[in-house]
Sequence to fold (210 residues):
Amino acid sequence: MEASQSLRNSAATSIAARRGRRGFTLVETLVAMVILTVGLLGTAALMSNMNLNSSLSRYMSTEALLASEKLEDLNHWPLNDPAIAVTFGSTAGSLTADVSQSVTVGAITEQVDYFDTVLISAGNGTIIETVTSTNATGNTVYTTTTHSPDGRVAVATTATAPSSADMLTFKRRWIIEKDVPIAAVRRITVVVALQNSTSSAQFQTSMVRQ
Fold:
């Protein structure tokens, strides 16, 4: 009797050992692969979202800098300069379209653009900023300012736009409102929008001056 019981115990132990060594079934392997795939897809989506938010923040920072730069530029003009004068109606310029018009103040008549395009590249540690404008003959010119890592600054004006693989294009538009918010002052509003990107980054700011 004892020998028979011992044989049965030995057989049961052998079967349990074989079951313990049999590994994973195909179904278990497939379930594990599905769980792993879902986890990897979630991680990839998170990383993509973080990269998008990082790029958007960089674009917005650049737009804020360009908007402040244009406001400072417009604030430097004398009170009676055509660049900031409102001689017809209550506004000059536009935030939604490229506007250019002839402005006369006293004996001075100038063709004033209320928009420009800024091209920015930051390759190899060098920051290149190109601003489009119209010269005295009505032709488009490109003024490029290059900031080198060693602190040197070079400015050049050409008839053709520079090319770069990582060039970002920003459009700046501005509007000048007379007697806003009170009489005898002007409110200048600048909007900057990134052109060559799927991102809808846009920045707008204003200032008030005489």
Notes: Helices lie at 2-21, 26-75. The chain has one domain: 53-209. Residues 11 and 62 are 77 Å apart (CA to CA).
